[in-house]
Amino acid sequence: MNARRDSTDGPENVDELFAEIVAGLERDGVGKDWLDLDEASPVSDLEARDDAADDTPSDPVEEPERRDRDDEDHYVPPEPPPFPVLRASTIAALGLFVLGIVLLVAPGLFGLQSRIGTPLSLVALCAGVGWLILRMRNTPPPDSGWDDGAQV
To answer: In this structure, are residues 106 and 148 in contact, taking their beta carbons and an 8 Å threshold?
Structure first.
């Protein structure tokens, strides 16, 4: 039932073909500069560096002077700009948002049942969020000067 047994599109003996290819590459010199794991010594890189250091004369190496952390200058960020004054329309949008949350959580405060308070709260929440989104500015602040930065 194996379809590969009757297949004639490949070589009969793959191992022999592979051995021929490898032998041809070795005759051409391919792979001679690769490290042979059988010939490699079990010396680690750290030991090899230590041996190399023992062979070379030791020159006194001047170490850089250590500085105290108190002497280093640290970056001190500037004070953030003051929070802008809220306009009346922004306060009204935030009020609608808060009213929507209160109507959703406790509609009984206004004497409403939840089947009436829930749709009203969703309308108030959507109106408050929508109003805030529509009030967003796309222009640079008025005190930004003539350079508007890199805008694409």
So the answer is: no
* pLDDT score of 103 more than 60: yes
Mean pLDDT of the chain: 77
C-beta separation of 100 from 124 below 8 A: yes
List the structure tokens of 100.
Answer: 């929507």
Lowest mean pLDDT across 77-86, 100-109, 131-140: 131-140
Q: Report the candidate in 76, 125, 71 with the shortest Cα–Cα distance to residue 102.
A: 125
List Cβ neighbours of 123 (8 Å cut-off, separation of 6 or more). 100
CA distance 115 to 122: 12
At what angle are helices 88-105 and 114-134 packed, to 10 degrees? 150
Lookup: tokens for 30: 């391919």
User: For the chain, what percent of residues have pLDDT higher than 70?
Assistant: 58
Instruction: Say how far residue 77 (Cα) sits from the centre of its chain.
Output: 25
Model pTM? 0.41
List, in order, residues 6 or more apart from 86 with CB less than 8 Å away.
94
Q: 96 near 131, Cβ under 8 Å? A: yes
Beta carbons within 8 Å of 11's beta carbon, 6+ residues apart: 17
The predicted model gives 9-37 an average pLDDT of 78
